[in-house]
Write a structure and sequence with these properties.
It is built from eight helices and three strands; from the N terminus they run H-H-H-H-E-H-H-E-E-H-H. With 169 residues, the protein is mainly alpha-helical. Strand 2 and strand 3 form a beta hairpin. The longest helix is centred in the first third of the chain and has 20 residues. The relative contact order is 0.13.
Length: 169
């Protein structure tokens, strides 16, 4: 019934995310804007889901999100929605070194994001990984732009990536 969420519910994955988010917070209304909703999705996928399943993640949720933000932004800058497995390993290694002091291998991190948080999806036809939905990539990239204070870079993005600027704004 809320127009600001109606577009999201056209996609089955996002509809499931909205429903799961709503169900996980009984008695509370859904956030009024998509930014807050995506923040909640990330918390739900990176922290709440592993806790519920009794799984210890390699990184705390905030550090895992920092790595994912850096990766999403790197992919957006290169106008990519997918990344080759070897390139992903290299990118994640660099981001792990930059974002955390915890000793974790890129393989373990990627596996957990793929299998537990389900923010990554591996293409069956190739050794490529992408975010489960482009909007997650766009949200995370927008968060990285904010973190790095590199708003000017948004002007250099192609039209296909205008949603990153919208989420940043």
């Amino acid at each position: 019934q809320r127009s600001e969420l109606q577009d999201m519910t056209d996609n089955p994955l996002l509809l499931c995310m909205v429903a799961a988010f709503y169900r996980s917070r009984p008695g509370r209304k859904l956030p009024l804007n998509r930014l807050k909703l995506y923040q909640g999705f990330c918390q739900m996928l990176l922290e709440d889901r592993p806790d519920y399943k009794g799984i210890e993640m390699a990184l705390p949720a905030d550090e895992a999100q920092a790595v994912l933000q850096g990766l999403a932004w790197e992919m957006v800058k290169n106008a990519k929605i997918e990344m080759d497995g070897d390139k992903l390993q290299q990118q994640v290694q660099g981001l792990l070194t930059r974002e955390t002091d915890v000793a974790v291998t890129p393989t373990r991190f990627i596996h957990q994001i793929e299998e537990i948080s389900e923010l990554f999806v591996r293409r069956l036809s190739a050794d490529e990984v992408e975010f489960a939905h482009r909007s997650f990539q766009e949200y995370l990239a927008a968060q990285e732009v904010k973190k790095q204070s590199c708003e000017g870079r948004l002007l250099t993005l192609g039209e296909d990536w205008q949603e990153v600027a919208v989420l940043y704004a």
